[in-house]
Specification:
The structure is a single chain. By secondary structure, this protein is α+β, with helices and mostly antiparallel strands. The chain has 3 domains: about 5-120, Jelly Rolls, CATH 2.60.120.10; about 160-300, no CATH class; about 315-460, Histidine kinase-like ATPase, C-terminal domain (Heat Shock Protein 90, 2-Layer Sandwich). It is built from 13 helices and 13 strands. It has helices spanning about 5-15, 25-30, 115-120, 125-195, 200-210, 225-240, 245-250, 255-265, 270-310, 325-335, 335-340, 360-375, 430-440, and strands at about 35-40, 45, 55-65, 70-80, 85, 100-110, 320, 345-350, 355-360, 385-390, 395-400, 445-450, 455-460. The strands form 3 sheets. Strands 1, 2, 3, 4, 5 and 6 form a 6-stranded antiparallel beta sheet that branches. Strands 8-10-11-13-12 form a 5-stranded mixed beta sheet, covered by helices on one side. A hairpin with a 2-residue loop joins β10 and β11. α9 (about 270-310) crosses α10 (about 325-335). The longest helix has about 70 residues, at about 125-195. The two termini are about 65 Å apart.
C-alpha cells in the first residue's frame, strides 16, 4: 500500500542523500514522483534498455550483475538512501546487466519527462543526483578496469603456464634419466676397474670416448639418419653381446661401428660390455645435462620476459621505454597462442628507433591488447606484423593483421566501452577502450584503418627527451 503524501514527505526527510534539501523540493518530488514496490528477484531495469526514471530508494537493495564470459558477478549495488536510475545530465544508456531486486524495495520514481523541469525547480536535489551519478560512473569504471585486468592476467598466466610447462617437463624428465644414467655409469665403472686394464687399453677407451663430444653433421642429425645409425649400432651391439640400450645414446654422438670395432679389438671380451656401457652412460649424462641447461635457460628467459613485460621492479612513473623490447616480450607471452593458430609473425624496427616516453607496464598492456586482438582476428595460418619507426618527435608503431577486417558500419565504435565484435564470452569490449585511455594519458594516439584482408592499428607516442 502506497504511503500518503505526508508519509512520503517523512520518508524523504529521513533519506540519506536528500533529507537535508529544502522542503519545497521534497514537495515537488512527491507531486511528480510515483511510489513503487518491487519484490525479490524482480527485474527493475533490463540489461541494455534505457532506464526511463530516476530512483529515490527508501528500503531494500538492488544489484546490477554482468557476465563477461567468466560467469555473472555483481558490478554495482544500491539500496536505502541511494539515488539511481536515469539521473539528470547522465549519458548512460542501458545498464550492462539486469537491475535485480535482492531485498524487497520501496522507491520513488521520477519519470524522465520531468527531469529537465527538476533541474530548474530542485537545484539542491539536482546537485545530489549529479554527485550520485559521478560516484556511480567512478565505481563502474573501477569495476571495468578490474575485470579487464583480471582477464588480461588470466591470458598472461595461461600463456606463461603453457610456455613454462615444456621446459619444466624437460628438466623433470631429463633429471630422472640422468639419475638412471649415473647409476649405470657407476656400475660399469666398478666392472672396468676390476678388469685391471692396461694403459694402452685405457688410451683406446679414451679415444672412443672422445667421439661422444663430437658434433654430428646436419645430415646425420635428421630423424631418418639417426634412426639408421641407431639400427646399425643396435645390430653391432647385439652381435657382440652388449646391452642394446646403449645404442640410443651412442647414436646421438659421432661414434661409429668402426671405432667400436677398434675398441673391441683392444679390450678383453669379458670387459667389452662394461666398457661400452660406461662410454654410453657418459654420452647420456653429457646429453642430459645439456638438455637440462637448455630447458633451465628457457625458463630463465621466460621469467626475464615476464619481468620486462610487467616492469615489476620499476616504479610506475613515465620513463624511457624500449618499444622494441616491449613488443618482443609481448610476443613471448603470446607464443603458445601463436603456435596454436599457426600464426606467422613479422617484425620490423627502424635502426634509429628511439625510446618512447611512457610507463612501461601500461604501454605493454597496449601492445598486449592490440596484438592479442590481431591474433584473434586472423584465421589459422594467418599473418600478423608489427613495425616501428621514428617520425619527427614521435614513435610510430603499426600492428597489422590479414583477418576479415572490421565492418565499416561499426569501425567508429570499436573504442567505445563494452563494444566488441567478438563472439559472446570471448571479449569484454574494454580492451580497446583501455588502449585509448592509456595512450591519452601518455600524450599518445591510436587510429585504425580496416578493409577485408588488412586491419592496421597505428599507435603514436612521444619520443623520450622530446620537448612537449
Amino acid at each position: 500500500m502506497a504511503p500518503t503524501k505526508a508519509g512520503l514527505m517523512a520518508l524523504l526527510a529521513q533519506h540519506r542523500a536528500l533529507g537535508s534539501i529544502p522542503v519545497h523540493e521534497h514537495e515537488w518530488l512527491v507531486a511528480h514522483g510515483e511510489f513503487r514496490c518491487a519484490a525479490i528477484g524482480e527485474v527493475v531495469a533490463p540489461k541494455g534498455v534505457l532506464v526511463p526514471d530516476a530512483f529515490i530508494v527508501f528500503t531494500g537493495r538492488m544489484t546490477v550483475r554482468h557476465d563477461r564470459g567468466a560467469g555473472s558477478h555483481k558490478v554495482f549495488e544500491f539500496g536505502a538512501g541511494d539515488l539511481s536510475g536515469h539521473l539528470p545530465y547522465s549519458r548512460m544508456g542501458g545498464p550492462p546487466g539486469d537491475v535485480v531486486v535482492e531485498e524487497d524495495v520501496e522507491y520513488l520514481a521520477i519519470p524522465d519527462e520531468f527531469l529537465q523541469e527538476l533541474t530548474h525547480e530542485c537545484p539542491a536535489c539536482t546537485a545530489e543526483m549529479v554527485h550520485a551519478m559521478l560516484d556511480r560512473a567512478r565505481q563502474f569504471k573501477i569495476s571495468d578496469l578490474h575485470d579487464e585486468k583480471l582477464t588480461s592476467l588470466g591470458k598472461l598466466a595461461a600463456g606463461l603456464a603453457h610456455e613454462l610447462n615444456n621446459p619444466a617437463s624437460a628438466v623433470v624428465r631429463s633429471s630422472k634419466l640422468l639419475a638412471k644414467s649415473l647409476a649405470g655409469a657407476e656400475k660399469a665403472a666398478m666392472a672396468i676397474g676390476a678388469a685391471r686394464l692396461t694403459d694402452a687399453q685405457w688410451a683406446e677407451i679414451n679415444r672412443v670416448q672422445a667421439f661422444c663430444s663430437g658434433h654430428l653433421t646436419a645430415e646425420m642429425r635428421s630423424p631418418i639418419a639417426l634412426a639408421d645409425r641407431e639400427d646399425a649400432l643396435t645390430d653391432w651391439l647385439a652381435a657382440h653381446g652388449i646391452d642394446e640400450e646403449c645404442a640410443a645414446p651412442l647414436a646421438e654422438t659421432g661414434v661409429t661401428t668402426a671405432e667400436l670395432g677398434a675398441l673391441a679389438n683392444a679390450v678383453p671380451q669379458e670387459s667389452l660390455d662394461a666398457t661400452v656401457c660406461w662410454i654410453a652412460a657418459g654420452c647420456s649424462v653429457r646429453a642430459l645435462t645439456s638438455e637440462i641447461e637448455t630447458a633451465a635457460s628457457r625458463i630463465y628467459d621466460l621469467v626475464n620476459s615476464v619481468k620486462g613485460f610487467t616492469f615489476m621492479d620499476r616504479a610506475r612513473t613515465p620513463e624511457s621505454v624500449d618499444v622494441r623490447k616491449g613488443v618482443n616480450d609481448t610476443f613471448t607471452m603470446l607464443a603458445s597462442k601463436l603456435r596454436q593458430k599457426g600464426v606467422e609473425v613479422a617484425l620490423s624496427f627502424a635502426d634509429d628507433l628511439p625510446c618512447a616516453f611512457a610507463v612501461g607496464a601500461e604501454l605493454n598492456q597496449v601492445w598486449m591488447n592490440l596484438i592479442d586482438n590481431a591474433i584473434d582476428a586472423v584465421a589459422a595460418g594467418g599473418h600478423v606484423s608489427v613495425s616501428a619507426r621514428h617520425e619527427r618527435e614521435r614513435v610510430i608503431v603499426d600492428i597489422t593483421d590479414d583477418g576479415a577486417g572490421i565492418p565499416e558500419a561499426v569501425v567508429d565504435r570499436i573504442f567505445d566501452p563494452f563494444f566488441t565484435t567478438k563472439d559472446v564470452g570471448k571479449g569484454t569490449g574494454l580492451g580497446l577502450d583501455i588502449v585509448r585511455r592509456i595512450l591519452q594519458h601518455h600524450d599518445g594516439e591510436v587510429e585504425v584503418v580496416s578493409r577485408p584482408g588488412q586491419t592496421r592499428f597505428r599507435v603514436s607516442l612521444p619520443v623520450a627527451g622530446a620537448t612537449r
